Amino acid sequence: MSLTAAPKRVKRGWMNLRVERIVHETHDSDTFYLVDADEGGRVFDYIAGQYLTFRFDDVEAKPLVRSYTMSSSPCQADFAAVTIKRVEGGKISNWFCDQVKVGSVLRARGPIGKFVYEPGVDRGHLIMVAGGSGVTPFVSILREYASHLGQAGAPQRMTLLVSHRSSQDILCGADLQLLMGQPGIAIHTTLSRENLEAAGYWYGRISDQKLAAAINGAYQTATFMTCGPQAIMDQAVAHLRQAGVEEAHIKTESFE
Questions:
Q1: For the whole model, what pTM was predicted?
Q2: Are 140 and 172 in contact (CB under 8 A)?
Q3: CATH class for domain 3-112?
Q4: What pLDDT score does 11 carry?
Q5: Does residue 199 have a pLDDT over 50?
Q6: Which CATH architecture is the domain 125-254 placed in?
Q7: CA 86 to CA 92: how far, in whole Å?
């Protein structure tokens, strides 16, 4: 069912979110499932691709604020989830993975962000390009629309091209594996440091050749979203501009 068919759940300002479950995704990333610490269940409605802003008062002398995109989707009605990947020297990403436990209560506000699919504005084919943890908004978007592609308010088709270092670095891999077999969905994973072409992965960094293969001629019939390291986004945008894609159909969101 579409999210718009349900009553809206809105909470203004800072809210208390309790960690209900933690899933170890990879050697350096975890998914944290969050519920309303005061009333139970998911505290807010959101659009797939939006993020939460967290406030941490006990990490340093002054409060620190960080934003993380939700990897869950609005159709998962009982919780919201964020997937956190450790960043070398990152104060909050490492603290999050080391110190946050089941039962921890976090302060957050949101949802925030316009990096979303916009029915009636975006084209029917949504093509997403990501690197590393930049895949999280696309996991949310894929989850949200996969069951009703071609229906009102949803894309007709979705394509994802995502780059990771190795198969051990793939975020939300089990979820993406389930989505890969659905009609209208194409997911291409390229590994920059591990050659597993025999297992169906692409090999090497995202390149113009890989972008062209994933897009498969749909430059003028798709809306493009790219997220992750700046170098990947810059390459994707340059490739799309060179192919004549209108700026209105190129959306970017940096995680740096």
A1: 0.90
A2: no
A3: mainly beta
A4: 61
A5: yes
A6: 3-Layer(aba) Sandwich (3.40)
A7: 9
